[in-house]
Each structure stands twice: as structure tokens, then as C-alpha cells.
Amino acid sequence: MSARRIGPYEILEKIGSGGMGDVYLARRDASERVFAIKVLPASLAREPGFVDRFNREIEAMRKFKNPHIVELYESGVEGEEYYYAMEYVAGETLMSLMRREKRLPWQRAVDIAIQVCLALKAAHDNGVIHRDLKPSNLLVTPEGTVKLTDFGVAQVFASNRLTATGGIIGTAEYMSPEQAQGKRAGKQSDLYSLGAVMYAMIAGRTPFSGSTAVEVIQKHKFGLFDRPRLFVPDLPMRIEETICRLLEKDPDKRFPDALVLLRHLEQLVRLEDFSATGVTLTADLPVESGTTTVAADGGDRMAASRHPGPATLMKSLVRDELDSSSHAGWLSSLFNNTYFLVAVLALLVAGGYWKFRPHAPTPQEMFNEGARLLAQDPGSEWLRAKREFFEPLLERDADTWREPLAPLMLKIELYERSRKARGSRGARDEAAKSEADRLLQLALEYRRMGDVRRAERTLAALYPLLAGDKQNSNLFDLTGQLLAEVRKQLAAVDDRNAMLESALDRAAAQADSGSLSAAREVWQGIIELYADDESAAEFVKRARDGLDHH
Predict the structure, then answer these.
(1) Annotation: CATH topology of 92-277
(2) Residue-wise pLDDT tens digits, 288-323
């Protein structure tokens, strides 16, 4: 590519970049129309697999033309550089929108999800699984139209050129469990990713997060996420249940395909609109011509004949009631007696309460249920275990349960403090009620920011200061537990850093000996795996420098 052109296109400016090259705003010859040009540079084109992957993206985009998928126009090769021209979408990525807005109203999130369903249906109908659905691959126009892009890791059905299993492909925060296990992705894998995107739009955070990509992937495979209503209490239950179903570990428990999900979301919008206006949806009833009934599916229908007016209807009802009363027997009279009906109702209520009265759990059952909730990933269920089971147990029999509950209550308190460390300044100040509290909160803040070593130094210095301090005995236990966790995390980070340091040394030696292809594979692998991991930024930078200089 010359400084200003590639093929018939005049380059205007660079508008993006990624693992598969750069994207430029361009104009074709003398035309005023602008295009987006994606270019695979010669340095990557010489590496094994990159050209195949680039061509696979082109092949996938050629298969469909849909208003919610960025359209491909043409592709070509100039020298050693591969490129293709596509529709230029004015606007921003969904990621940019989410960073600015923090959380989106559920109505807007569902509207975006509906448009993504239309894009996924078109892709799936043409035999393409996207495999990397995430906010940065969704473009939003100023008018609110959403377009799916970047099919660089897409899987084309029946393609023999794809590695079906054994490799993890996708972005950690939005990756389906089956992709995290290296299994072949299917339609429902894209739906899981859409569920993660919906969760992030509404809750303002991804379902799973961690200090490394590997940690996030493990949580996708085995972890439990906080339900969205924990962060958005007024979120309609039906919306939350839809997101949770999309995030099921088992693909068979998700929606079967994008069309079914699309219809489901459209129905949810109608139901919530009716709920907001106070209209009650009922089953269809036979009515006479001239009236409009609201059916259970929200549609309107005209019946066969005109419905009687209110005066006529009341007259008929009164006449029928008088006729019925004049011919009523003793049984009918009995059931029309108010005192008799009240007595029957009282008997039914008493009998029902006796039969279905709540079973009071035993203390051991309460302990077991709380421990079961605590075995899940940290979240709202931990707080429920404390509120509904552990605290009542201590109130009922503190002498018996204080000791077995002590380590469990410590875990929950540490989790609560960690949440406050992530919260507002006011919440953090409230948590720090003493100097020891402040230092513990400071260590939690260092840990949250990824500075694990500084957190370890703070805790290691604080721990002996609290030893023997009866006033801060609880903080002493908390500090010891957190110190053990941080040191375990630090050991894992040190192990990872040693691996990356060794890999970079090996790549440098390979480059010096002329094995540039092998060195590039190492550098590219580090970038692919750790580009989003801030704690590995130094190693990613060195890998990029290696690619740039070789």
C-alpha cells in the first residue's frame, strides 16, 4: 500500500485496528462515496494461517446481505497486502456507547438485542457462526441501527479448512462455555455471547470478570454470575429470566436459535408495554360483531356481530338473576347465604394452612443450605446465606454455631468489603471505621486495581500489628484470610510471568537465529491471549515491539 492508496481506493484516515490488521476510511477514485477498507499488512500475510483467516472472513461476509450486517463490496491483493472494501458505518461501537452511558435502559438493550438477532439469523441461515460476538463488533449508527461486523474468527459450516476443536477462539468476557472448552461452536454459542452482551448493557458489567483471561474462561465454564436484578432492582423479571436462560452452561437449555429468541424478545416488549399501561391480557372470548378484543398475543380482532350496549346488557343480567332466584331450590338458597359462604371459606383457609403450613427447618438444615449457597461464586447468594441462614442460627443458638460459622462468616464479610472497595467513595469511607479498617480497605483497593504486590505488602505489614489486639480480633482474622488469598494469587501471577518471560526470551533467540516465523507465532500468541489483561501489559508491549521490529 502506498502512503495514500491501496488498489483503486484513496486512503483518507485510519479509523481502527485489531489482531487481523487495520481499518481505513477511503474513497474510490473520484467518487464522493466513502468506504471502510480492512488491510492485512504484508508482515502478517507472510505468517502461516493469517491469509486463510482473512479470506475466511471475506468468504463469510459474501454469503449474506442484511441491513444489520456490514456489507462487503469487493476484495483484492496489492503486492503482499490483502484488503477488502466494506460499508462504512458512521457512528460508534456498542462498547464506546456502553463506556459513555455505563448502563443502558432495558428497553434500549432489548431493542439492540432484537437487531442483533436479525443479524445472527441471517448469518446462521447462511451457515456462518460468528464466534466472537461482543460490543466492539457491533456498530451503532446515530439513528440507532445496529450492524454486526468482524467475521474474522467465524466458523463456516462444512468447511474443511477450519480447526473444529482443540483451540479456544473468541473474547474471554463474552465466550460461551463450549468455546472455552475448545469445543466446536454452534448457533447457541452466539446466543450465549448475546446474553453476555445484554447482561453487560443492562448491569454495566460483564457476567464474569477476573484478573486474567484464563480466570474469566474458567468462570464461564464453571462459575455462577450475579443475577442482573442485583444491580438493576427495577429490571422486569421476564427480562432477567431471558438473560439467565441465554447464559445457561448447557447449550440445549438456551433458546434453540436466533429466530425463536427474536420472537421471544418482541413478545416481551409487548407484554411489558401492556403491563405499563395497566391493560390485562386475557384469553380470547367469543364476542359479538363490532367489538375489538385484545388477544393473548397482543393482536386485535373484530368479532362476527355487534355487542349489546351497557344498558341492554345490565337489563338482561337483572332479568336472568330474577328468573334464577324465583326457581331456586334449597341448595341454591344455601349457597346464596352470605353467612354460610363465610363459614365455608374460614374452614377452607384453616384446613389449607394446616396442610400446607411452612415446615420450620432444623438448625442443621439451615447450616447445610447456607453452606450450599456459599459454595457458589461470590455474589448475592452469599449475602442471602448470611441473612436467611447464618445470622438466624447465631440468634437461635450462638454457643453451638459460633465456631462452625466463624470461617464462613469471615468469607462473607471479606466479600462485602471487596464490594465496597469497588463501590463509591462514600461506601468506601463508610466501610473504613478505624485505622485498621482503612488499611484493610486500602489493600482491597490495590487488589481491585490489579496491584497485587502492593496489596500483599500492605496486608503483610498490617497482620502482625493486629495480632493480640482484642478490639480488632475480627479484622485480624480477615486480614490473615485475605493475605493468604493474595499470596496464592501472587504465586499464580509469578508463574504466569515466568512463563511469558521464558516465551519472550525464546522468541528473541528464534528471531536472532533467523526463525522469524516461529518467533512471530510466540509474539502473536501472547497478544491474542493477554491483550485485554492489564497486569500483563508489559509482556504484550514487548510482543508487539517484537512484531513491529521483525
Answers:
(1) Transferase(Phosphotransferase); domain 1 (1.10.510)
(2) 333 333 343 444 433 333 444 445 545 554 555 555
CA angle in degrees (0–180, nearest 5) for 226-231-232:
125
Alpha helices in 357-424 (DSSP H): 363-374, 380-385, 391-422
Which residue, among 253, 192, 181, has the nearest Cα to 218 in the 3D structure?
Answer: 181
Strand, helix or coil for residue 502: helix
Question: Is 52 considered catalytic here?
Answer: no
- 169 close to 131: Cβ distance less than 8 angstroms: yes
So what's the architecture of 5-87 in CATH?
2-Layer Sandwich (3.30)
Note whether 479 and 456 are within 8 A (CB).
no
Query: To which H or E segment does residue 77 belong?
Result: strand 72-78
Distances (CA, A) of 194 to 92, 114, 201, 325: 18, 10, 10, 62
**Phi, psi for residue 250 in degrees, rounded to 5:** -85, 120
- The predicted pLDDT at position 213 comes to 80
Assess contact for 225 and 207: CB atoms under 8 A.
yes
Burial pattern 139-149, b for ≥16 Cβ within 10 A else e, equals bbeeeeebbbb
d(CA 204, CA 232): 9
Domain with CATH 1.10.510.10 in the chain: 92-277
What strand order describes the sheet that includes 5-6?
5-6, 9-18, 21-28, 34-40, 81-87, 72-78
d(CA 72, CA 63): 10
Please report the sign of the dihedral spanned by the C-alpha atoms of residue 230, residue 235, residue 236, residue 239: negative
* Cα separation, 396 vs 257, whole angstroms: 50
Distance CA(122)–CA(126), nearest Å, equals 6
> Is the per-residue pLDDT at 400 higher than 80?
yes
Residue type, 397: D
User: What does the pLDDT look like over 127-151, one tens digit per residue?
Assistant: 888 888 999 889 999 899 999 988 7
The residue with cell 462473607 is 412
Catalytic residue, from 29, 125, 132, 323: name it.
132
- The boundaries of every CATH 3.30.200.20 domain in the chain are 5-87
Taking the C-alpha atoms of residue 95 and residue 140, their distance in angstroms, rounded to an integer, is: 10
**Taking residues 248-258, what's their average pLDDT?**
93
CA distance 38 to 56: 14
Place of cell 488491510: 39
